[in-house]
Specification:
This protein has 153 residues and is an alpha+beta fold. It has three helices and nine strands.
Amino acid sequence: ILRKSRLVSGKNKQARIAERPEGQKEARSAPSVSVMDRKAAWRINRIQIIDPYGFHELSSVDLLRVKSKLAEFERKTWNEIFTKEKHWNHALPVSDLRCPLARKWMREHMPDQDQLWTLRISGAERIWGVFGDGIYLVVFWDPNHMIWETARK
């Protein structure tokens, strides 16, 4: 703030520039955090509760186990989940999904999404969803790894 000089008792006072008026806060920008450096977070508004990939198939014991695994993921960053653990958790093109039902559902309900991200819960069990802006949108429960079936060892 610039204060103007004024004549007081025949003397000029110098103009002063205040760095910041007392009592006012100074705006600062927070350092930007990469999406991949954020902790895992979920949305469930698109979760499927219909056959063949619905969460309705889970028993209460299995649901608690899945909840526990998701809570473990929440302690990690997306970088840890999708880079360090990319063998288990990664993106796959929707057009290449081996399950025609999942491909069809994605084309009809989420045509703007070109890939699905898989999270390994245990063994063959997977959760499939859409990842963007640091949020994982949970869509399918795949207890037998059928959406992207692989040869068993």
